[in-house]
């Protein structure tokens, strides 16, 4: 059996799907690995480091994929790459399937079995394969680093001979995986941190990290979590009350990090134009939800916007990719943990258990068809 690791064709994607450590583990399972030349460069891994752990280097994606049974990528293969894959090959990546039905059909037509890592169920057994968490955690960290870099002042309180520098006030909106890491990072950098979320369970988590929880804690708030642990979309009345509270709080903040998402819905709008206008010149907002429509009025994907009153709204995309080496390392471990369950240890070949719940949840295409229940054509 042969695994191919391809160079990402999207120039905005610096991550790589396998690092030398995970290649060593694949080799340990008795599997051959080919890496496309240059695949790891943007993540700080030269070809020689892959060769040193026993990978073969191929000059092009065509050469790398030619006889591969399994292709590992960060992003979905494009039309060009699909032409190079063996019919019946398996491809695993972050497929971004929602709204991309044409691309799913192209993968089915190419005869590949495609698996989408971000559809992995969030159950205990699959925690080690959870790419949403591994990447969101890094994004939360990087959002604070980016916010601090744009902020023209220091983060911690400093008592110096020339006078005292006050600590920055950081407000984190949305306390999921990214938000929790943002709180912890801002605290480590010495900021005074507050945070808000619509899920009541987050209050204790915020406080355990030494930050203060800010939210309208009414009856609706107490019921605001789905059985799956995700946020519900809140009523217009709740949103109004929350907005009023946020409005008075936000005007006093130096850095705001927004991370609020609702599965399957556009990101909730949490920071209005008026709220941005109420902030002090020089303050910074980092919108981690910008690729999903944004939490902040005026945020633009891929841009740092400076408003008329001198507030910077940071809208970096692929924020985990801004830590390409760490993000690749964690992503490739998530991938290895999943791939290991697909390989038969005796025959050292792919032996997918099609009735395994992890396989059923992540498998998009098989035998020329889009098979995932969430992506079936709607009945007329
Ligand atoms: P997410 O990325 O979907 O959303 C980020 C946060 O935004 C969430 O905390 C959400 O409640 C919040 N949010 C939504 N609307 C909001 C609003 N109007 N105002 C303020 N905040 C708002 O979240 P996530 O990081 O994927 O985490 C979601 C849940 O999944 C959490 O309960 C988390 O503990 C759980 N989780 C479980 C596992 C596991 O393996 N069991 C792994 C990771 C996360």
Task: Please tell me about this protein's structure.
- This protein has 380 residues and is of the alpha/beta class.
- The chain folds into two domains: 2-119 and 323-365, NAD(P)-binding Rossmann-like Domain (Rossmann fold, 3-Layer(aba) Sandwich); 137-318, Rossmann fold.
- It contains 13 helices and 19 strands.
- The strands form four sheets. An eight-stranded mixed sheet has the order 3-2-1-4-5-6-18-19, sandwiched between helices. A seven-stranded mixed sheet has the order 11-10-9-12-13-15-14, with helices on one face. A two-stranded antiparallel ribbon has the order 7-8.
- β4 (70-75), α4 and β5 form a beta-alpha-beta unit.
- The radius of gyration is 23 Å and the shape is globular.
- 46% of the residues are buried.
- The model has no long low-confidence stretch (mean pLDDT 95).
- Nicotinamide-adenine-dinucleotide binds at residues 122, 127, 130, 132-133, 136, 173-179, 196-199, 202, 229-231, 234, 259-263, 268, 270.
- The site of nicotinamide-adenine-dinucleotide has 29 residues, from α6 and α7.
Structural class determined from secondary elements:
alpha/beta
Total beta strand runs:
19
The largest pleated sheet is described as: 8 strands, mixed
Architecture of the largest domain, according to CATH? 3-Layer(aba) Sandwich
CATH class of the largest domain: Alpha Beta
